[in-house]
Amino acid sequence: MSDIWNFVFGRLGWDALPFWEAVRDPTTFNIINGIIAGGAAGMVVLGVLGAVILVTWLGKWKYLWSEWLTSPDHKKIGIMFIVIAMVMLSRAIIEAAFMRAQQAVGLDGGFLSPEHFGEFFTTHGTIMIFFMAMPFLTGIINYVMPLQIGARDLSFPVMNQISLGLTAAGAAIVMISLVLAPFSTGGWSGYPPYTELSYSPDAGVDYWIWAVTLSTLSSTLTGINFAVTIYKKRAPGMKLFRMPLFTWTALSTAILMIFGMPPLTVATALLALDRYLDFHMFTSDLGGNMMNYINLFWAFGHPEVYILILTPFGIYSEVFSTFSGKRLYGYTLLVIATICIAFLSFTVWLHHFFTMGQSAAINAVFGIATMLIGIPTGVKVYDWMLTMYRGRVRLSAPMIYAVGFIMLFVIGGLTGIILATPSVDYQVHNSLFLIAHFHNMLIPGTLFGMLAATNFWFPKAFGFRLEKRWGRRAAYCWVIGFMLAFFPLYALGVLGMPRRSLTFFEPAYLPWTIAAGCGAIVILFAMLFLLIQLWVSVRDRHHNNVFVGDPWDGRSLEWATSSPPPEYNFPVIPEVFSRDAFMAEKEQGKAYQIPDEFPDIEMPANSAMGVIIAVTGTAMAFGLTWYMWWLVILAAMVTLVAIIARGYVRKTTRTIPCDEVRRTHLAWIECVRRTTPVDRSKEQTRENRGLPVPPVEGAVQ
Amino acid sequence: MKGIIDSFVPLGRGGTILFVMALLSGCSHSLPGFMNPQGPIAEAQKHHFWFVVFVTLIVVLPVIIQTPIILWRYRYRGNAVYRPHWAMSRWLDIAMWGVPFVVVIVLAVVLWRETHQLDPYRPLDSDKQPLQVQVVGFDWKWLFIYPEQGIASMGQLVLPVDRPIAFQLTSATVLQSFFIPALGSQIDVMNRMVTKLHLQADNTGRFQGKNMQYNGSGFHRQRFMTQVVDDAQFDDFVAHARRDGYRLDRQRFNQLNEKSDATDFAGMLGIENYQHGDLMAFSPIPSRLFDAIAHHAPIDWTSLTTSPPQNRKIMDERMPPSNATPAPPDAEENTHDEADDNGGEKAT
Ligand code: HEM
Ligand SMILES: [Cu+2]
Ligand SMILES: [Cu+2]
């Protein structure tokens, strides 16, 4: 009997249930932790059940399957990436709030168990990086970049589905770990030997390894896809130096993904070899050396932080120039700065471990290299200021994020220079100062960038604007909440408080942790306001409709098509004659033309590959984590068969007849003709139907 | 409660715009950390910290000050000049690249000098011989070995004031990071590797010491008290340890390797009412204990009985302390430690 049980369930047992400890040993403390963990597990289960019931009740399974899950359309895949990111963001923020709450009462105590706290910072960090930021920016690039370069889709649509499938599988694994615990406590960086089998024997680290591995594979494929698309599929006339800055940053990001992700895939794979097959790559004995892991990890880790920041740089560039009604200042130098940053980002990884005992000369060289990156980054900030200079600045929600970003980001830059200085880093390394620094980069940088992007491109994707008042409230709350939650951590770091501390014993820390806790509350409100904003916007969608497609007086090609765009993006591939292609068309009165001839359009056909990979990926990772070998073999075989079978599929494309294209286009042009253009003072009102008055008159009030 | 109030004191002082700065720069005596430095290294780090802050502010302040001004001046309906096609200015570009470049050069020169000056591996300049202390990180406690005195301690690291301390560090378990914020740098502590650290205390007193690198559920409890005393008290400490120290035999050593913090360990020794920062002293201890741990070599338990505690008399005996610290590299030792032994190259 127990043999069969072991065969089927591997090492999975009752103790994997999150409230098991509370049942086994019901002290108040265990019960509180059991309720938190059990509640989280319950939310996952209820969330999944609720979604299934809802879709069944609405009778939308078929729609979901054929219009979304199997769709190769880059726009839909982009949106699905962002949905994953949003769900994971909610979870990770709740976890962050728990950590802040724990530390706010953490003088000599607190309410979380050490294991629980360890899982919190590990899942929070892992999710925020791999399952919030990465899918979010991948989704945004997926959606926007092909439109900006005048393409119909990415170069490899099915590979795009597979990327989505892999990310979904990784996210699913992290969510499953809430129901069948535990997760790793080794932090998002998972340093061995702590994460080796001898120190962390349970399933947690394995969950972490496979979730991260799935994510890095996904991002590598994505990087290849983006880079090839940008090299190969630009519209005629779109020379490299005519590409919008967002596309440039997308290209740099893609290159960073291609070279930056594999080191981590290798590192986690080697760690898996250690744990599963008794290799000794990173163990303390038999010739293993954990420093190799640390180098591999940061060979990924530093490029990764630039993956996370370059895309937002592109987004902010678009936002600043659009909402200042002005060309981007210093385009060429911005492009050069972007490339410099991308290149230099491979040369500084050692600054993450100045304290490991290498010679002063090595530390100094890497410290100086790190400060050098600060130069192109600083220049970008000045460029954005000069983009507003002599413009006509409209303080819409994306702009609030953007302005908040440059003012906060330079503070993060300052503390970054401090951390890049080895002699000082010896004091603040591993402390909350470091936590404050990178949140100072990642929240105003990455997260605000993503939120600015959603506010900015949402009307493009869904055909209606997001409500402005709740949008602004959310933005202000984010800025204030961020400052309140993280500036105190600088002080705590200088006072010597280690990161990842469950409890502390210095009363001097307490006021600061309480202040940071208040900041977390403001951030929770910001999240709430975002939800309200979405709710209100959907409710009023007819009033805020912008089918015509250009609500912000945009500059690049994505605004030259309807909102939402047709599946094929453009009826005829546009021709490009200058930078800011669509703005140029508008200035010359050449926008919204009817082409002489409509071609048949060939688009990729639906495919279930993404779904299959998502399912087998989840199954394989789950099986590996719990030692259910039959599941691993089964999933591997299904994957293999699916890949081979895909090779035999003949009908990989689908043709959209020219009549349909013509009809759609004429209907849109008709709508454009019937719409009254508005100037920028009415941008946020219901009169804005997505048609701006010709630029120069429009922006000059 | 007093601590809470004290930590608010700096808030009132100083009219600096950045409230964080105001908070950090005030120095109230109960504040932990290097803003209240107790040794030359921490002191230098504090100065370097503020130097970097002020120099970097040259490029940061313009952004923080000018952004709101630009926002206001060029607001929609603000009637300021509007140049939608203006996107290039050679002079601004030169300033934009030039000023940060100069700032980075200044910072880089100082960085180069200070990084060498404050290198944890660099022995401190002093006319006194450094005291050798060997630190072993266990899960979740530190063992401090005084090889010249033949004693060890836990819970409390006792150091003589005004005398350089030369630490050698290793871990009996996972990666950790050894840190006394008030005195200076932290340094990683790694299994099968030896790192070095040089510190000095200028004042007597009690300063918190910690582990900065997460190593499991007892991480936050892995702290110790650094007790800086004058020479006479240090001699007393050594004498006391030799007289009343616990014998560090095989059984106790195995207990060290169990997952527990200093308080738990005190319990195993049978100490009641152990408080954080209390001293546990050990003597005799096996000879070359540190090297055996660092190199995964067998520990010489016989030395506990064969060699008497230490025939050197209480430390300061004007005899040159052995600065070439121990361990002829044994055969299976990894290259890392060889590099370590020839002094210049270090643990990477
Ligand atoms: C939105 C508000 C956020 C709050 C309140 C928050 C809070 C926290 C807290 C309390 C910690 C643990 C600090 C410690 O070690 O003591 C942490 C760690 C971390 N956070 Fe956040 N965070 C937020 C957003 C983000 C975002 C947007 C990202 C990344 C895109 C992020 C990435 C990380 C990472 C990587 C860690 C380190 C985890 C580790 O120690 O392994 N966080 N955060
Ligand atoms: Cu880095
Ligand atoms: Cu090492």
Could you walk me through the main structural features you see in this protein, from its secondary elements to its overall organization?
The complex is a heterodimer of chains A (701) and B (348). In chain A, 66% of the residues lie in helices and 1% in strands. With 701 residues, chain A is an all-alpha fold. Chain A has a domain at 60-545: Cytochrome c oxidase-like, subunit I domain (Cytochrome C Oxidase, Chain A). The mean pLDDT of chain A is 94. Chain B has 348 residues and is α+β, with helices and mostly antiparallel strands. Chain B folds into two domains: 2-117, no CATH class; 131-341, Immunoglobulin-like, CATH 2.60.40.420. Chain B contains ten helices and eleven strands. Chain B has helices at residues 2-12, 19-25, 40-73, 90-117, 231-244, 250-256, 262-269, 289-294, 303-306, 335-341; strands at residues 131-138, 141-146, 151-154, 156-160, 165-171, 176-179, 186-189, 195-199, 205-211, 223-229, 280-282. In chain B, helix 1 crosses helix 2 (19-25) and helix 3 packs antiparallel against helix 4 (90-117). The interface between A and B is large, with 106 and 110 residues. Bound molecules: protoporphyrin IX containing FE and copper (II) ion (2 copies). Residues 302, 305, 348, 351-352 of chain A line the site of one copper (II) ion.
Hetero groups in this structure are:
protoporphyrin IX containing FE, copper (II) ion
Note the beta-strand portion of chain A: under 5%
Whole-angstrom Rg of chain B: 26 Å
Largest sheet of chain B: 6 strands, mixed
Number of helices of chain A: 22
Query: How do the helices and strands follow one another from N- to C-terminus of chain B?
Result: HHHHEEEEEEEEEEHHHEHHH
Q: What gap, in angstroms, lies between the N and C termini of chain A?
A: 81 Å
What would you report as the Rg of chain A, rounded to the nearest angstrom?
Answer: 25 Å
Q: What assembly state would you assign to the polypeptide chains in this entry? A: heterodimer
Reading off the top of the CATH hierarchy, the class of the largest domain in chain B is best stated as Mainly Beta
- Strand arrangement across the biggest beta sheet of chain B: 8-5-1-2-3-11
* Shape designation of chain B: elongated
The residue fraction in helices of chain B comes out at 25-40%
**Unreliable parts of chain A:** none
